[in-house]
Request: fold
Amino acid sequence: MDTSLHELGQPTMRGVRVPNQIAYRHVRESVTELLSTNEVDVRVTVPSCPQWTIQDLLGHLVNVTALAIGQLSGWPAARATPPTHMDTVGLLDEWARLGTTADQLIADCGGRAGTILVMDTFTHELDLRYALGADLPDEHSAFAGAFEVLATGFANSVTAHRLPAVRLSSGDTQWTIGHGEPTATLTADRYDLYRSLAGRRTHDQITALDWDRDSHRWLPAFTWGPFCPPESPVEPLIR
Reply:
């Protein structure tokens, strides 16, 4: 864990940390269930990834699995571009096939790469849930590791912007982001925190959360790595 990130209290925000291969399999099974048990129009645009349809998002999940297998094994990637010729059933079958290999590699040598894969796939599971109007899970084994990746990235961004430390609070858990004593506290539902750190909340939505002082100083830090707050809302706040 990054030295600028510290956690206090009961881990209600992170949940119980499970091995990455179990968390990754949970995401795969959840997405498969969502797309197998609903009458889904896979041509629908995913609001939080407006360049993608649901079919494109699923293709991305298959593709990153193939790329992860190549990275973790040293073999050439099984696939370099999304498998656009496959239908939804074919993509799910391909993901299941690749997933068995990925699970083993993540267990054997996944490390940080495995944690990032879990974060990416879980974030897209949530994207899919919002696109389908499906409920967010009360408990999910991927949440803990995925949130830690996002919180660490945000902590590094706070430090890079030379901002004072800020406290994130949800339930009984508090995270100190940055160095030194926090000068502000952001209290929110854990999914509002997660989606804010993952570039799925606008600056106005982030500001509308429960801050104990003006939030604007920290808003630039919510742009980091691949994540950037959208200009217009792509999904509602939970509060």
Q: What stands out?
A: The helical segments are 20-36, 54-73, 88-109, 111-132, 143-160, 190-197, 203-208. The first helix runs from residue 20 to 36.
